[in-house]
Amino acid sequence: MTRWLLSLTTLVLAASCQQDGQVDGEVAASLKVAGGTQEVWCAGQGPGIVLINGIGDQASSSQWLGVQGALAQDARVCRYDRPGTGGSPPPTRDGRGPDALTLELDAVVDHTTDGEVVLVAHSFGGYLARLYAELHPDRVSGIVFVDALDPSVGVLRGTGADDFGAVAMADEQLDLPALETAAAAVTELPADIEISVLVRERDVMEGQRQIAALSPRSNLDVVEDTSHQIPTDAAQAVADAVRRLLD
User: How far from each other are the two terminal CA atoms of the chain, in whole angstroms?
Assistant: First the structure.
């Protein structure tokens, strides 16, 4: 078993750490998308920030509550549950691949602001951020990858699953092979998209350097004394990384 797998445990756990409650002033909305309905929660005013969580049987955007609360005083921060996760009902169709998930993210970006956003992506959510940024570079000013998955590691190696059908994904009904192939095809992003990569420890760098190489404007920082659950273990470190991009 690799060091990556021992430290990550599984991508199922990457999205399983939930917190009850909500951020002060948070407003909920239901967005209709091709795959069904997704719940979105936004708080604050100012520059747009969209938070993207990973996959797993307990996947939920509630993992971002600490980050959202820390940033809501300076920005409009939105988190969302993709169809089939958290508070969103199961999707109306199966085999949801890159087209479906980028359209769902686009609906959240439009709900957040008319302009550019900073995407903040944890674990498997890193696939969605890179896909969206390549397709809609005019809507993305920066990306914070939080211990995100890179195709050089891959979903199977990251989760320890024997095959894609064994990967826990709540009720999302994802086409994981198509999503991984599409993510691997994104080898660079426009130079004006600034990237910050946060990783939990120095010994788990495989894939993180590949993510940083997506843009010439990137930096890679180790968040000390955390697990893979950086959004909940070190919410302030994530918020600080976002503020640096906003500045």
Answer: 41
**How far apart, in Å, are the Cα atoms of 137 and each of 77, 116, 131, 190?**
19, 9, 10, 7
| CATH code at position 141 | 3.40.50.1820
User: For position 1, what pLDDT does the model report?
Assistant: 33
Domain range for 87 is 3-246
Confidence band, pLDDT 50/70/90 cuts, at residue 21: low
SS3 labels along 70-122:
HHCCCCEEEEEECCCCCCCCCCCCCCECHHHHHHHHHHHHHHHCCCCEEEEEE
- Which amino acid is located at 69 in the chain? G
Please report the sign of the dihedral spanned by the C-alpha atoms of residue 58, residue 177, residue 82, residue 63.
positive
**Ramachandran quadrant class, 174 (left: phi over 0; alpha: psi -120 to 50; beta: rest):** beta
Across the chain, mean pLDDT equals: 91
What is the band of 19 on the pLDDT scale with cuts at 50, 70, 90?
very low
Does the global pTM surpass 0.90?
Answer: yes
Which tokens is 226 given?
């955390």
H-state helical runs in 76-142: 98-112, 125-135
